[in-house]
Amino acid sequence: METSSSLSFLLTIPLLAMVISWVIPKALQRLYAVFGSALILALTAYETAGILFSASTDVAKAYFVDQRLEWVSELGLSAGFRLDGVSAWFLVLSALTTLVAFSTRGSWYRKQPRLFVSMGFFLLFALNSAFLATDLITFYLSYEAVFIPMIFMVGVWGENQKAASVYRFFLMSFAGSILMLVAMFQLMSMHHAATGQWSSHLADIMKVVTAAPVESLFWPCIGFFLAFAIKVPMVPFHGWLKEVYVNAPMPGTIWMSAILSKLGVVGIIRFVIPLFPAVIKEYQGPLLAISAVSVIYAALLAIRSSDGKTLLAYSSISHLGFVMLGLFSLSAEGSNAGVLLSVGHAVTSAMLFFLLHQVEERSGNVDLSSSKGLASTYPVLFSGLFISVLASVSLPGTLNFGGEFLVLLSAYRASALCTIVASLGVILGAVYMLRFFQRLGLGVPQNSGNADVVFKKDLSIADLLVVILLVVIVIYGGINPGIFMKG
Amino acid sequence: MITSMILFPLAGFLINGLWTLWAANSGRRVSSRVSGAIATSAMLAAFVSAWLARDQIPASGAAEVEIFRWFTLGSLSVDFKLRLDALSSLFTLVITGVGALIHLYSVSYMEEDEGAGKYFAYLNLFCFMMLNLVLGGTLPQVFLGWEGVGLASYLLIGFWYRDEANVGAGQKAFVMNRIGDLGFLIAMFIGYKYSGSLDLATIEKVILPAGVGTSFVLLVFLACTGKSAQIPLFTWLPDAMAGPTPVSALIHAATMVTSGVYLLARLSPVISQSVTGMMVIAAVGAATALITAIIACFQSDIKKVLAYSTVSQLGFMFVACGVGAFGAGVFHVMTHAFFKALLFLGAGSVIHGLHGEQDIFKMGGLKNKLPITFWTFTAGWAAILGLPPFSGFFSKDEILHQALVSGSGSVILFSVLLVAATLTAFYMTRLYWLVFFGSPRMEKSKFEHAHESPMPMALPLVVLGALSLAGGFAGEPIHLPHPEAVKSTPAWIIMVVSVLVAVVGAMIAYRRYSTGSPRTEVANDVFRIDSIYSSVFGGGLRATATATQWLEERVVQGIIRVVAAITDLSGNMIRVLQVGSAQAYLLMMIIGLVVMVLYFLKGATPHGNF
Predict the structure, then answer these.
(1) Is residue A7 part of a domain?
(2) Could you tell me the residue range of the domain that residue A454 belongs to?
(3) Interchain CB distance below 8 Å, B144 and A442
């Protein structure tokens, strides 16, 4: 099935879905979005099944489908895409995240729903394009295109209408990508200087970069690294995150935490480490250290968080710190484990935010300062939430355990100290996640007294199906994590 | 047979769990009898499997069943496989046997409880995880069981979750266990680094460099102090009594808390390599045995006495491991499982009979009201005191003996244990007397309504009573390498001394508490360990988190505000962004691209690539 037509198909189908959404009546937008994204998920899984379920663990190295379109060949402006074991999983994850995000309910389906749905599908397109890109310019354009729907999310359906302040935080992210663009210029000039040809294709750039002196690569490396460190984010480049996560509408938060953060992860795997191995090797110590600090620092902030959304936002940074620890252990094992944990984090955080959204709909808020005691009223919802809490604390038997365990196991060889420091996150994670669950679910049921509470019932069948799908992935991945490790 | 042993409890968990969820969603109630019957049959079937599976153990070594490949990473591959040898077989028999009895007991005990379906699901889940712990053929699988039993323990301690104190106790148990689990994790990293494998068969044989070996042993032991409630991580266990009493009997007395002893015995060839590590284990075990025995003397809650007693008895087992007598430690695990489960179930029967009363100073004179409970409790009492021929006599005597005569044993260890044994006799007799003898100290109506427990509760008491009486004659059930005896103290002297101290301890208690109105000496937090922990560690964590928050708000966010302010100054960009955000953004992107194209054109032309 892995033909170049399947690649174009995967790229164009979200665009097609976006165009169709313009003619769907407003009242049917949610239905269309949920079914459309479920269909795209199924098609994506079908098209990539050969790679996803391949027994080989070496698919990433073999270019399954590699497509290169010349735009302006004289300038070396081309578009390159590659479908392999890593990008295939991220395509599935972005479709899955889109399905979960579209399954929410809220103002975004009342106020300009058409815009919301088309932006969602556009986001999916941009994400897929970024995950598949093997060409610097293609990657940059897709990476930047992801911002557009996010700005709409916060601006149009944002929670507190504090759009002005939120844009400042976007700026920080934007600054990162400008630096990356500059670094791309530099690399392309180096290629031109060396060969007399312009090219932005990764494979061409790679040839030149491996021959280049290490000193000349320092600044380009910094440019790429900062862009991705901000995107993930790693401490201390995380300053933008809280404000954006908290003010974004829930679907926006789901997209950001589950899949947008993975753009940074993929960027590091695909660009930073292969292009600048010598530079990264030289700074491996500090990189491992800030990864470990990210884990602990964000976990401590999560402990102090007084509402569910902030807590999950910080917990996200903490878990991504583990991912970075794996990547910067600079071994094939660490990088594979990092990908595995990224998948786990994507699924788990989509599930956590989705269920938190369900809680918010029923209690009116997700404040954690006192216990709500909702578990006895909504047993199914809270069973799902509990499973996602367990996955989040990486209990063995869940998808996240394999990732976290193997990350630490690989990182231990690179730096025992950083690994031990990061492992403390295992304890802190239990502290804040149990408190999170306790405050929402346990204790004596409280009357919310909130007139806005719309849903008095437990999860609807459709929501339940989404949760079951996620639970199945989390448990199946806990039993057979090998399926997600194709690096 | 080996596989079916773990599949039965798993099936029971899934059936009861899904049924409970379905019922909750459709507003129905799960029948406590039916769900109890399902769970109990699952455990009975597991016990039969465990019994039959003994035949599959080869004369030397272990039977292994590979179930599936769990994960692979580079040269490491970890299988999900079950490994049955004499040691794990003994544990499976205790888990499924005592487990089945406690399940049966729970059918009556939880009959009135709305959440019975959930309760039985959790209890089966616990047994499934516990079996994984002792049958796991690789360290990650043991760790799966290790964390899994912690999860079940958390769920069952906080079973009545409307009361936040119960939830808090569950969380405390989980977090303190996680501290230990960190030791387990890092020990695995070390083991992998030096052996290139996580298979138990390989790890058992690994020879670690001296310093590394000690770290490895201490890390493994840290894990044990969490799960088996030893100093410094023991304070969660008394709080864990917030759960239903059968849970205390199964998880917090007979099985889960002995995991640490299992792990040390399992890894005994590696553990014994480190003399320092072994010394620490023995010393911590002895200190725990003594300190918690003292605390037990001042408790008024019947379950708390038994909880501290459990911690103290586990200390005995760790001393055995620490002096190299792993077999004696495991022997005591077995007899302790019988008599401590019995004592807890007996306590549950008393609590049940008195409709929830747990204060021993509000009991008394129950011997004729609850005859079955009384007689079986007597067997448990005699066993924990170590009176011959009750089971505890054999195993405790063996530990005392080894603590004195083995190479790493000493007079100090022996004396500390002897004092702890005296105190054990004291607090148990105190409890025994205050509950069953003397005049009733509760309201009259309560005494009159006190009733013996129904059949499903009485039967497990009788079976466990018989095992507490006769279980010691089995002798050391497995043969782990024994330490060389370096001192020649005749075994009979130690036997006499150990019986003597038990009698002395019991006599002192009898004299103090057999008077008409017993003195109510009660002090819950005798050494103030709990409050010190909560102010030092709890406070420390809070302070660190607050400091981090300050850093975040003042420094990190401050920098961002400064950056934003600079951007504000640099023209109207921010205002443009606010007005027509997306369009402006697109514009900026396009301008960027145009600039880039121009840059290329400029750079490209002179080289004449066209």
Answers:
(1) no
(2) 283-487
(3) no
Chain B within 8 Å of A468 (Cβ-Cβ)?
Answer: no
Please indicate, yes or no, if residue B228 is contained in any of the structural domains.
no
A-facing residues of B in 210-269 (CB < 8 A) are: none
CA atoms within 13 A on the CB side of A319: 35
Question: Residue B199 domain-assigned?
Answer: no
Pairs of CB atoms within 8 A across A/B? 190
How much is the average pLDDT of A383-400?
93
Please give the ipTM for the structure prediction. 0.90
A169: left (phi over 0), alpha (psi -120 to 50) or beta: alpha
pTM: 0.91
Mark which residues 132-171 of B lie under 8 Å from A by CB. 140, 143-144, 147-148, 151, 154, 158, 161-162, 164, 167, 171
Q: Is residue B477, in this structure, part of any structural domain at all?
A: yes
The boundaries of the domain holding residue B549 are: 528-567
H helix and E strand count, chain B: 26, 2
Amino acid at B242: A
Residue B57 has pLDDT above 90, yes or no: no
In a domain, residue A32? The reply is: no
DSSP string over B155-222: HHHTSSTTSHHHHHHHHHHHHHHHHHHHHHHHHHHHHHHHHS--BHHHHTT----HHHHHHHHHHHHH
pLDDT of A452? 47
Radius of gyration of chain B, Cα coordinates, nearest whole angstrom: 29
Q: Test A164 with B162 for CB contact under 8 angstroms.
A: no
B301 beta partners: B359
Selecting from B193, B585, B596 the residue whose C-beta is nearest the C-beta of A148 gives B585
In a domain, A218, yes or no: no
| B309-B314-B317-B319 Cα dihedral, nearest 10 degrees | -90
Mutation choice for A interface testing from B25, B30, B68, B71 by most A CBs within 10 A: B71
Task: Tell the residue number behind the tokens 């926006």, with chain if given.
Answer: A252
Residue bearing the bigger pLDDT, B176 or B488: B176
Co-location of B487 and B431 in the same domain: yes
Bridge partner list, A398: A396
Q: Quote the CA–CA distance of B71 and B73 in Å, as a whole number.
A: 7
Nearest to B387 by CA among B293, B378, B413: B378
C-beta atoms of A413 and B600 within 8 A: no
pLDDT > 70? residue B62: yes
Q: pLDDT per residue over B301-311, tens digit each?
A: 999 999 999 99
Rounded Cα–Cα distance for residues B579 and B573 (Å)? 10
Q: Tens of pLDDT along A409-429?
A: 999 989 999 999 999 999 999
State which residue of chain A sits closest to B556, comparing Cα positions.
Answer: A239
Residue A301 lies in a domain: yes
B529 or A77: which leads in pLDDT: B529
pLDDT 10s digits, A166-197: 666 667 777 788 889 889 988 988 888 888 88
CB B356 within 8 A of CB B442: no
Contact B321, B271 (CB under 8 A): yes
Q: Measured between alpha carbons, how far is B494 from B497 in angstroms, rounded to an integer? A: 5
Secondary structure (3-state) at A318: helix
Number of domains in chain B: 3
In the block, residue with structure tokens 């009959």: B111
B534 and B420 both lie in a single domain: no
pLDDT classification of B205: cutoffs 50, 70, 90: confident
B314 shares its domain with B326: yes
Q: How many domains is chain A partitioned into structurally?
A: 1
